[in-house]
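From the pipeline queue, job 12 of 40. The input is one protein chain; the requested action is below.

Action: predict structure.
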Amino acid sequence: MHLTRSTGLTLAALGIGACLATAGAASASSSRGHEQAPAQRVAALPSGWQLVALPNANVPNFQRRVVYCPGSKHVLGGGGEARGNGAILVGSFPTDDGRGWIVLGRQIGYNDVGISAFAICAG
């Protein structure tokens, strides 16, 4: 497998922190009719949130890689990356029980593909 090109990067919700933080500040400022300075914004991230990652590993095409949230935490979002020549990220979605994130891919012309998986957890 050649790891010279990266395709299919999907980090579906890694921007959730920025979105939640600015959403909370935007709603607070709109009620007063003026914008808050960035230093006054309060992060609206759930307490105890955590980013969990499975580093890149070569797996057979279409084999799922699953990253789970620790303890009693549940997944808020996630994503993955498929690496290699002609690599394609085929799927990126939460587990049925909401405790992890599933990622799978394939690499055209090869039997395996490099897959990374990420989950944003809170609880």
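Job complete. The two ends are 38 Å apart (CA to CA).
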